[in-house]
Amino acid sequence: MAARQHTEEEFAAQRKRQQEFEEAAFKIQTLVENVRHDPMKLRKITLHGVGKTREGFLHRILEPAFQARSLHEVIGLSRQAVRRMERFGIFEDIKIQLDSPRDNWLQDRKDLVDLGIWVKESSRIQIRTGTEAGNAEASLYGALTVKNVFGGAETLSTSMAFGTRTSSAFQFALATPLLADPDKNLSINLYSQTRNNTQWSSYEEDLKGGALKYSTLSPFGYHELAYEGHWREVCRPSEKASLTIREQCGHSLKSALTHMWVHDMRDEPLLPTTGHFLRVTQEYAGLGGDVNHIRQEVEAQVARSNNTGYILSATVKSGYLHSLNGKPSKISDRFFLGGPMSVRGFKSNGLGPREGEDSLGGDAYMSAGVSLMTPFPGLAGRESFKAHFFANAGTLVSVQPGQSATKTIDDLTKAPSVSVGTGIVYRHPQVRIELNFALPLMAAKTDALSRGWQLGLGISFL
Amino acid sequence: MSDRQEEQIISSASEPIVETIDEIQEDGSIIRKTRTTRKITKRVLTTTTSVKEDTETQQRNHNHSQAITASESSESTLKDLSVGSAAEAISTGSSTTTTTSTTTTGAATTSSITATETAVASSSETTESEEVSEKSSTATTDETKRTFKFGGIFGKGDVDNHPLYRFLAKFPLKQSPAPHTRPRPVKPIVYAFAPGWKVGGQETEKQDNKDVEAEKKDNKETIIGSFDVDSLKWMAYLKFNQIDYDIKPAFEPTMSPSGKLPFLALPDGSLVTDEGFEQWVQENKPHSNKSESLNIHEAAEAVAFSTLTESKIHAALLYTLWLEAPHFQGTTRQHYFGHHKYYLGKLLNYMSKSNIVHSMLLTRTQIDRELIFEEAATAIEALSVQLGENEYYFGKSTPSSLDAIVFSYLHVILTLPRIRNAEDGGRSGELARMVKKHENLYKYSQNIWKKSFAA
């Protein structure tokens, strides 16, 4: 009886506290509501805890907040400024406080308010080592990143990676946001890497070069404009390399302007259930250098699902390499097609022109894939396992300089390589893993088939 | 008396069938396919042994002979035959039978002889077929039999018979022709530094008839000769042995399996590099009676002179081309890296130079110009003395490998463009002057060029 009373009392007390709390909140809310549109502006912004960040940079970020004219705007613009600061990644902890001015002669000015921002700058130097898995390749990397190098959220990073497909890669990058906008980024990259293509084409490629990139976000999507200069060497053909690959050995210089536009409305990139995706890349090589071409690539994906876990997705990928000076293309610029992440049912880079056991690459390709993911029998609760039914098709052809467009289109459409199959898809937070049983239905004589089981690990699939 | 009758007749016909099919592709090219089917030969000869109660006893022995493709196994069976027949002959023991057994053994031996004959004959037939099939298998065939790599996964045994693989072998359901076919070369192709001494935009002194003819020919877009000593050596040697070849200009030593140009690409797809070159030429030259070979002494001297040339004169030539500024920045860069952009060519030139210096330092402690050129002068003089007034070395009427080596060095030295520069005081032409001092070498080089290349 006493215990019951005790709890009843507590219950009543709690309810009373809650009521008081709600009343107070309501009071503040009405207060703010009434005052919201009253004229008010920011007089002073004080930043505490800033050491290395440049004043001009911060001024640019916080400038828009001074245009607030009412309490509502003050709160809104201050929040936006703080979010911008957070996005640069140089501050660990940001707290804000709005208060009336402390100065004595402004005591009765009700329309001025001061903003205080307390920040903690994150540590400048960061060293990371680890392993990384990408599209059918795994690598071991070590990276040194220095943030906020010159006080304006510039990032300097040096990294080294050793992997299966890229046998060694060194990269030095300096990136800076432009105009204190975290969405606009300008970066200089210098890199030196060796790609090991012996498995499908019996050669290795050394690449040294640099790029100047500008990337920005616009209402249409993400744009990236870059100038690249590459010095490539096709070298070290293996014992069984064919004559065409041997003839490709040598140095070439590429000086190119590239542009990429990405419009991604999918819910997530690894296993999208809704939305669409479009990526268009163009490259014009010809500002000096040995190669003079236009290279264009388009990728589009659409995904639809219903509530019971069935997902239907379709992808189309196409590319074209057009030589502008009448010379045939070099193998470093060509496209390759086939593999567990491209047209399934064929070996990696197994489609298209081949000589002996070497894949020579092609100048124009088209590929399409349709996938139906269904809940996996027995694991219906888990969203990351799905059963997978797919149909893929693709063609890769080489184009002689001066060939007519009709002949190219004719080559692309007359003999596609088609495969169907089924399998399991597992969506790991970082990669997508597929185990498929694929059957090629139509293939060219020289295509390298991969009938039966095929494992794919990567980020973007057809 | 027992009546032993064992009749086992197992025979399966076997013949190697070689088919050559020419398929005309859609783009007009013709693909020749060679298909060889070879089955295992099994021939079993049986003779029954029957011992009857008649006075005349006829004994024939069991003779099982299996002629199998492997000759070794056929030999073993023949041994068994002889043992078996002897044993059986002895086993039937009686006086009359002994006499008859001798005859029968004789008969047995004859029959066994015939068996061996047939066995040998059949085995030889099959070995011939093996050779034929081996040859055809080395030639690149366009057979589209697709094999399964990891056949052992589903257990041992005949992989292709497993139901899963039989099912998989049905795919692809439809095959379309190959998108890319490279026509097979008809003649062997030499990938070499080429062309010869046509250098664009640089002052070249017209040296008598050589350059004029080279330029004339180059205007007609044929490639003769080479600026590189090794390539010219190969070309000369092939020409001396009357082997027809095509030249493909190549400037990247990495493309060769041995890492050094030149190399030879044969019509059957294999490649011949430095090591196997001379042997290949000797194997493939058209047999003619008028080729004179060197005797032991001459061969030894040829080896000595070629070593002399390839060490002393080669060192001096490397020095002139790579370590002396006038040629290095002009001639050598133009020849070896002229097809690259200017600054890349310069960079690669410097990288090659450090490799050359490194290789020279492997055989000497320091690179001493005086010593190198002195040794080269002595070597040239020795070559001149050895040649004398002959047309070719050792007085032969057809050139030998030594002629190819010496000619290539002399020609490259003599056709180095003369740099008219006051800076180096004419040192860049020193090697050429050394050679020109000896009239006979000069004429010899001209002669070979005219006869083998310019003609």
How would you explain this protein's 3D organization?
Chain A is of the alpha+beta class. Helix content of chain A is 17%, strand content 50%. Chain A is built from 6 helices and 21 strands. The longest helix of chain A is centred in the first third of the chain and has 34 residues. Chain B has 455 residues and is an alpha+beta fold. Chain B contains 13 helices and 10 strands. In chain B, the strands form 3 sheets. Chain B has a 4-stranded mixed sheet with strand order 8-7-9-10. Chain B is globular, with a radius of gyration of 34 Å. Chain B starts with 10 loop residues before the first strand and ends with a helix. Strand 20 of chain A pairs parallel with strand 6 of chain B, so a sheet runs across the interface. Chain B: This is Metaxin glutathione S-transferase domain-containing protein. Chain B: InterPro entries: Metaxin_GST (IPR033468), Mito_Protein_Transport_Metaxin (IPR050931), Thioredoxin-like_fold (IPR012336).
Number of helices of chain B: 13
Approximate helicity band of chain A: 10-25%
Rg on CA atoms of chain A, Å: 29 Å
What integer is the average pLDDT of chain A?
Answer: 89
Ranges of chain A where pLDDT stays below 50 over 5 or more residues in a row are none
Globally, the shape of chain A reads globular
Classify the oligomer.
heterodimer
Q: How would you characterize the largest beta sheet of chain B?
A: 4 strands, mixed
The residue-averaged pLDDT of chain B reads 68
InterPro entries (chain B): Metaxin_GST, Mito_Protein_Transport_Metaxin, Thioredoxin-like_fold
Region (Disordered) (chain B): 46-141
Protein name (chain B): Metaxin glutathione S-transferase domain-containing protein
Pfam families (chain B): GST_C_6, GST_N_4
Defining key terms:
heterodimer, A: 462 residues, alpha+beta, 16-stranded antiparallel beta sheet, 6 helices, 17% helix, 50% strand, B: 455 residues, three-stranded antiparallel beta sheet, 13 helices, globular
